[in-house]
Every structure is written in C-alpha cells, then in structure tokens.
Amino acid sequence: MNTFLRLSYQVNFMSKLKIIIRTFDSISQSIGQSFAWCILILILGTCYEVFMRYVFNNPTAWSFDMSFILYGTIFMMAGAYTLSKGEHVRGDFLYRKWKPRIQARIDLVLYFLFFFPGILAMIISGFDYGDASSVLGEVSVNSPAGVPIWPLKLIIFFSGVFLLVQGISEVLRCFVCIKEGKWPDRNYID
Q1: Residues 136, 109: Cα–Cα separation, whole Å
Q2: CA–CA distance, 166 with 12 (Å, rounded to integer)
Q3: Three-state helix/strand/coil letters over the chain
Q4: pTM of the predicted model, to two decimals?
Q5: Nearest residue to 127 (alpha-carbon basis) of 94, 160, 171, 100
Q6: Is the pLDDT of residue 85 over 80?
C-alpha cells in the first residue's frame, strides 16, 4: 500500500509540474505573439516614411526613433517566447547526441550557473535603468521630435521578468525530463 501511495504522489506531482510548465509557457507564448504585432506597426511606419521621403520629399522626424524603439521592443520581448519554443542557440553538435536525462542535467546546471545570474542582473539593472529614464522623462537625442525612449528602457526590466518566468519553466521541464527520461511536449500551443 505504501508503494502505491508513493507512486500515486509522484504521478500527481509530475502532472502538477507539467501544468505549471504549460501555464508559464502559455504566458511566454502569449506575450511573444502579442508583441509580434509590433512588426506590422514597424512595417507600416517604415513604408510611410519611405513614401513621405521619396514621393513628397518630406521625411518624418519620428520614423528613425520609432523603428529602433519597435525593433528593440520586438527583440527583447521575443526572448521568453523563443525560450518557450526551445529555439535559442546551443552547441547542438554534442548536445543532440546525448540522452534526454543527460541533456536535462546539463541544462539544469547551466541554468543555475549562467542563465539565472544573468537574468537577475538584467532585471535589477533594467529596473534601475528604466526607472531613472522614466523619472527624467528621457527623450531621444537623435530626433528633433523628442520621441520618448524611457518606455523602451523599461522593456529591459519586463523582458527580464518574462525570461525569469520562462527560465523557471525550463528548470521544471528539466526536472520532469530527469524523472521521466523524456522531454515534456512544447508544441501544445500555437
């Protein structure tokens, strides 16, 4: 009876971990898909600038700032989404030949040695950087339009928070893989 209860507890615990993983993955993927719409705004703004510049010979004062702010936002907010899909760059020439349990153990060590310290530094410094910029009401020095750039600097903090959440999901995914011998599915959302 005791063995049955222990096995039942382990199965229940693993299913709860998988629910947490799915929830965190869903958050990361929803954020990534939401910010992907910035690409459409970026394209429309760039087309508008090209049209104004070359057809009417009247370039805009805000287009350059808009393009780097939107591109930076897309790049930063896509990090957690990309991690949730398992698409970040890694040394696959060795990694892909290992068994999943070994991959998970290596990933677990690397998350704690490199990922979490880097992300925590990003969150802390991103908050300080973004807060100082928003208090000053910082605007772009590259544009006569005075486009506010403090929201982009706050994105560093938010991107770090979402990467932290997804990093926790990845660590939990490693635990599940170590226990079950296979990686939990990543393709349940899209």
Answers
A1: 40
A2: 22
A3: CHHHHHHHHHHHHHHHHHHHHHHHHHHHHHHHHHHCHHHHHHHHHHHHHHHHHHCCCCCCCCHHHHHHHHHHHHHHHHHHHHHHCCCCCCCHHHHCCCCHHHHHHHHHHHHHHHHHHHHHHHHHHHHHHHHHHHHHCCECCCCCCCCECHHHHHHHHHHHHHHHHHHHHHHHHHHHHHHHCCCCCCCCCC
A4: 0.86
A5: 160
A6: yes
Least confident of 7-11, 85-89, 177-181: 7-11
Whether the per-residue pLDDT at 21 is higher than 80: the answer is yes
CA distance 81 to 26: 9
What is the token pair recorded at 40?
């459409």
Q: List the single range of 15-19, 62-66, 175-179 with lowest mean pLDDT.
A: 62-66
